């Protein structure tokens, strides 16, 4: 397995970060700040570097290249496998197509025989990530090794874009299927947020829109928690993720992040479903705990054969950590020593098994790592 | 050097390979970091204030719940998913004094059961041995299926309500229902005693009525013979009047005894209906004939309003006649001079048949209504002193109607009048076209 990593920045254009001199890479992963893709020129250049590879990428809330966290750049990694075969799939949610159907259709495009793992990238605003995961699992089974992430758009929550062999566009989904006996995949996820305050019951919600907690508007509760930060909604709501779990089953908890607010309806949109009747609790993050969570994710994902680690971390973490964001990537790098190259992005949702369950689900506010290697 | 500063220096390099630093860029990065730290401090501090408020609110809710649980009249317990006591109140300790020291967080339910069984506190009898009782109790605890009762050897009876909680534990409510059970038993015994007494009374009356009738037949028979002067003249005409009074009194007594006998038979379930197809108009005529003289004496108008094509009724002739005599007799008794009584009969929309006796009499006050339908009810009121009679007419009529599957209903306004309806069900009403064949 041979890698080549390139970085584009407005100051320096494309630079080569490192190369094992692959001859004919079959896969190029690229994670790009939204505005860098506006004119299509960068995508054309990338295609020029790797004319025969499949190019799969998305827009981000920040790019990860090596141990650096960047904004306004493009992080590209070309991969040449020794024995592993790949299949690609592409879908969109145009014409009112449901996220569930899109996920199922995406999965159905991947041949089932010999499938060892799936990595998914999806629009992060127009797609309900939980439904997408359900759709994929409906076709491939709930125990399919599924990881991935939802595209980002800085901290703006505007348009997020995904592309497969095309300049990324809104409303798209793309997936890579890994095949063959040689492929080795590792998966790990970690949060580090702490639940605080009382448990509340989701008394009114529809899909991924939350209205009431304990019969009180959830937005009012968030404003109370945010205090002066409320002026920066919805971005500042990322400081307080919501942990939800079915009543009596705290171990089945998921973390949900706010991606939009509707002042008029006193509603909040989350990056995944919020089922009515679930127990909800606000979470609070501290620098050290979040960085510790990233380290835990790396230890779970670590496999001896790993050559590449794709880091999908939540925009909420970056917003809180600020310039310390690189510390969490450092924490990952410390675990996955120098033989493993890092790439990745800050997302609007992470897809991976949770810290407590082997089945993949949509997460928010986590660091999620997919490690790839060959025997 | 701090990790962050080292990173900032790297990011502020003038070119990727050299060491020269762009000072403005470095300062901007350092400044931004300070602002970030300030913001994190502000956000955390504010969140901690909110959490403190919420903590206080939670504590208030918790202490209210604790207070409520401790003040409950019943024992309360929450068992966790491992079936260990998580929360309980003092009342629970009072309910199981023998094992009160085990009522504390952490005690396993099975441990508590074993202590109760070993201490001989529970009577296992309904479930067999102590071991059988223990396994029954444990099974019902782990798979709750409605309330259960535990008998203690000190005579107390405990009612237990247990339900599963979402977390996989059990919530239980435990109440001493010995007193409730004692009162229930007392009430049941009292009811049984009363019912037995009533049966005895009815049987006594049935026998007595029979015994009374024999001498009455002699009184009636011989007074009739005397009035007819069968064995020769009585002499002074006054004797004939006296004989007439003896006959009237005897007949009244016989009617009364018949009523009592009927009532007693009905009450002990020994009244058998002898049914046939009867003509309602004819039954009304018979009853009115018997009472017309008395009504006219009191200056009361009697009006009969029966549809000519009324179908026949399948009923006991004697019972229907007795009902009519009772109702019309009551109407005459309670209607003043110049008043009127109307007897009408008609088919009901549901196919049943209704006979109504309405008067312009004194009426019945609402609070007297239940009384007039109770056997001997009139005895307890001032009515009897003024109007005579023992008050058997209405209750007996009601029972007779009910024996026919029908009903008796009273509508009355004091000072305006009373209307009594006898309803017979549809099944007892003959087809009109068959009328001729039966009558």
Question: Could you walk me through the main structural features you see in this protein, from its secondary elements to its overall organization?
Answer:
The complex is a heterodimer of chains A (375) and B (439). Helix content of chain A is 19%, strand content 41%. Chain A is an alpha+beta fold and 375 residues long. Chain A has 2 domains: 276 residues, no CATH class; 91 residues, no CATH class. In chain A, the strands form 4 sheets. In chain A, strands 15, 16, 17, 18, 19, 20, 21, 22 and 23 form a 9-stranded antiparallel sheet that branches. A 7-stranded mixed sheet of chain A has the order 2-1-7-3-4-11-12, covered by helices on one side. A 6-stranded mixed sheet of chain A has the order 6-5-25-24-28-14. In chain A, a hairpin with a 6-residue loop joins strand 26 and strand 27. Chain A is globular, with a radius of gyration of 19 Å. The termini of chain A are close together. The relative contact order of chain A is 0.17. Chain B is α+β, with helices and mostly antiparallel strands and 439 residues long. Chain B has 4 domains: 67 residues, no CATH class; 104 residues, PAS domain (Beta-Lactamase); 86 residues, Helix Hairpins, CATH 1.10.287; 164 residues, 2-Layer Sandwich (Heat Shock Protein 90). Helices cover 52% and strands 16% of the residues of chain B. In chain B, strands 2-1-5-4-3 form a 5-stranded antiparallel sheet. In chain B, strands 7-9-10-12-11 form a 5-stranded mixed sheet, covered by helices on one side. In chain B, a hairpin with a 5-residue loop joins strand 4 and strand 5. In chain B, helix 1 packs across helix 2 and helix 4 runs antiparallel to helix 5. The N and C termini of chain B lie far apart (125 Å). Chains A and B meet through helix 4 and helix 7 of A and helix 1 and helix 2 of B.
């Amino acid at each position: 397995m041979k890698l080549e990593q390139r970085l584009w920045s407005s100051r320096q254009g494309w630079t080569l970060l490192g190369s094992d001199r692959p001859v004919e890479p079959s896969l190029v992963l690229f994670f790009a700040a939204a505005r860098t893709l506006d004119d299509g020129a960068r995508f054309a250049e990338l295609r020029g570097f790797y004319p025969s590879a499949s190019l799969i990428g998305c827009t981000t809330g920040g790019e990860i290249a090596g141990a650096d966290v960047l904004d306004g750049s493009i992080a590209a990694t070309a991969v040449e496998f020794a024995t592993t075969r790949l299949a690609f799939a592409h879908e969109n949610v145009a014409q009112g197509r449901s996220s569930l159907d899109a996920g199922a259709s995406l999965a159905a495009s991947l041949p089932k025989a010999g499938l060892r793992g799936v990595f998914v990238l999806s629009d992060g605003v127009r797609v309900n990530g939980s439904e997408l995961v359900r759709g994929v699992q409906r076709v491939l089974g709930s125990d399919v090794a599924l990881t991935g992430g939802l595209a980002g758009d800085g901290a703006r929550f505007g348009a997020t874009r995904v592309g497969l062999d095309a300049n990324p566009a809104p409303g798209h989904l793309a997936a890579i299927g890994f095949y063959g006996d040689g492929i080795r995949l590792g998966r790990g996820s970690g949060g580090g947020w702490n639940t605080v305050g009382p448990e509340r019951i989701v008394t009114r919600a529809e899909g991924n829109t939350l209205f009431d907690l304990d019969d009180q508007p959830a937005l009012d509760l968030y404003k109370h928690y945010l205090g002066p930060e409320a002026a920066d909604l919805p971005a500042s709501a990322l400081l307080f993720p919501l942990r939800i779990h079915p009543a009596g089953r705290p171990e089945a908890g998921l973390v949900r992040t706010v991606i939009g607010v509707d002042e008029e309806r006193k509603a909040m949109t989350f990056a995944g479903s919020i089922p009515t009747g679930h127990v909800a609790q606000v979470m609070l993050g501290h620098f050290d705990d979040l960085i510790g969570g990233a380290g835990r994710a790396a230890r779970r994902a670590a496999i001896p054969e790993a050559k590449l680690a794709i880091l999908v971390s939540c925009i909420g973490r970056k917003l809180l950590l600020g310039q310390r964001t690189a510390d969490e990537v450092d924490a990952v790098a410390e675990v996955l020593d120098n033989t493993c190259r890092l790439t990745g992005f800050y997302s609007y949702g992470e897809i991976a098994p949770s810290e407590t369950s082997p089945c993949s689900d949509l997460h928010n506010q986590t660091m999620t790592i997919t490690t790839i290697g060959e025997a | 050097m701090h990790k962050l500063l080292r990173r900032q220096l790297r990011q502020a390099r003038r070119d990727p390979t050299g060491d020269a630093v762009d000072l403005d860029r470095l300062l901007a990065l350092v400044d931004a970091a300070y602002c970030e730290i300030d913001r994190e401090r502000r956000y955390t501090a504010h969140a901690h204030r909110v959490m403190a408020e919420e903590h206080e609110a939670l504590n208030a809710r918790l202490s209210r719940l604790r207070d409520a649980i401790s003040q409950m009249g019943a024992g309360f317990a929450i068992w966790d998913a491992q079936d260990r006591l998580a929360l309980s109140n003092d009342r629970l300790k009072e309910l199981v004094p023998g094992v009160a020291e085990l009522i504390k967080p952490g005690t396993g339910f099975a441990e508590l059961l074993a202590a109760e069984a070993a201490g001989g506190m529970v009577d296992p009898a309904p479930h067999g041995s102590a071991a059988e009782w223990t396994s029954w109790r444990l099974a019902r605890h782990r798979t709750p299926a409605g309330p259960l009762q535990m008998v203690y050897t000190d005579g107390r009876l405990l009612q237990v309500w247990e339900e599963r909680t979402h977390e996989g534990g059990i919530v239980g409510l435990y109440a001493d229902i010995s007193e409730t059970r004692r009162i229930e038993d007392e009430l049941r015994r009292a009811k049984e005693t009363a019912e037995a007494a009533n049966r005895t009374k009815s049987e006594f009356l049935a026998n007595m009525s029979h015994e009374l009738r024999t001498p009455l037949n002699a009184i009636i028979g011989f007074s009739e013979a005397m009035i007819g002067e069968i064995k020769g003249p009585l002499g002074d005409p006054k004797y004939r009047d006296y004989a007439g009074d003896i006959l009237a009194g005897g007949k009244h007594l016989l009617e009364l005894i018949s009523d009592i006998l009927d009532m007693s038979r009905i009450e002990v379930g020994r009244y058998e209906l002898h049914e046939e197809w009867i003509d309602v108009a004819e039954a009304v005529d018979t009853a009115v004939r018997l009472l017309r003289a008395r009504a006219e004496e009191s200056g009361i108008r009697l009006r009969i309003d029966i549809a000519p094509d009324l179908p026949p009724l399948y009923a006991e002739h004697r019972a229907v006649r007795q009902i009519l005599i009772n109702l019309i007799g009551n109407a005459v008794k309670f209607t003043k001079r110049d008043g009127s009584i109307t007897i009408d009969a008609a088919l009901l929309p549901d196919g049943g048949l209704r006979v109504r006796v309405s008067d312009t009499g004194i009426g019945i006050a609402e609070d007297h209504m239940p009384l007039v339908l109770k056997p001997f009810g009139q005895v307890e009121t001032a009515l009897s002193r003024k109007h005579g009679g023992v008050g058997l007419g209405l209750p007996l009529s009601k029972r007779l109607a009910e024996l026919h599957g029908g009903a008796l209903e009273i509508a009355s306004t004091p000072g305006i009048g009373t209307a009594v309806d006898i309803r017979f069900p549809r099944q007892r009403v003959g087809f009109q076209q068959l009328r001729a064949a039966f009558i």
